[in-house]
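Same chain as my last thread, 121 residues:
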Amino acid sequence: QLQASGGGLVQPGGSLRLSCQASGRIHSIDRMAWYRQDPGKERELVASIIGRGRKEYADSTKGRFTISRDSAKKTMSMQMNSLKPEDSAVYYCYAEVTYYGGSALITESFWGQGTLVTVSS
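reply #2:
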């Protein structure tokens, strides 16, 4: 299970920090990412982090957003600075999780419930 938090209303140029907590009988987590979706548009990748720290950002967020993770705590965060109105969307966390399913290890992708970010004056 993934629980996202940290969204809200912020003025242009402001900052927000999103967090995502994974829970359950987790063996390991590989790729974690943030996606966002505007109504009527496709969900798009904002930033991702793989393994011990290979990071990828959408061109529109490079230099403004910073993704990080704490593998021991099974959390992921994203610091969003210099926010623009076009950053407004529902943000979803995503993780590729290997967990204990009975006597076997199962790898599955999970989505968090989404957290709304609104950038407006």
